[in-house]
Amino acid sequence: MAFVLTLAFVNGCATVISKMINYRCTKILGTYNGSLVNYVVASVLSFILLLASSHFHIDLYAFSSAPWWMYLGGAFGIVAFLVSMITLSRLKVMESTILLLVGQLTAGILFDTFIFQNISFPKLLGVLLVAAGIIWDNRISGSQKES
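Given the sequence above, the corresponding structure tokens read:
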């Protein structure tokens, strides 16, 4: 379990590092060219990992028989990337990262509620506490800038 928790932590760090590198890339190349570079490099690396994997097997029938909604992951991924790059130019890194976290928690609660019918008060309370912390931090930061 500790290994999985460590991987989740590393994933969080990698997400922020990736966001900052991609933000710099979009500043140099532009938002759409920067996103193209990001996804081309990711596609090439994914293909190399697939080739290096002991499970290398491309099943074209599986691709064609998959439900249409399974392909929305890539569409949501590019939308998330573009929104992230646009908002990062207007928000601090910490604000952007915390809002990303709150969005992920909210989406998780919505999925738990509507897809899995498994929602609990502590989950909802956790999201509300994180959101309250963001609002509180913004008010404190705003008052410090004024003085």
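The chain has six helices and no strands. Try to locate this feature in the token string yourself.
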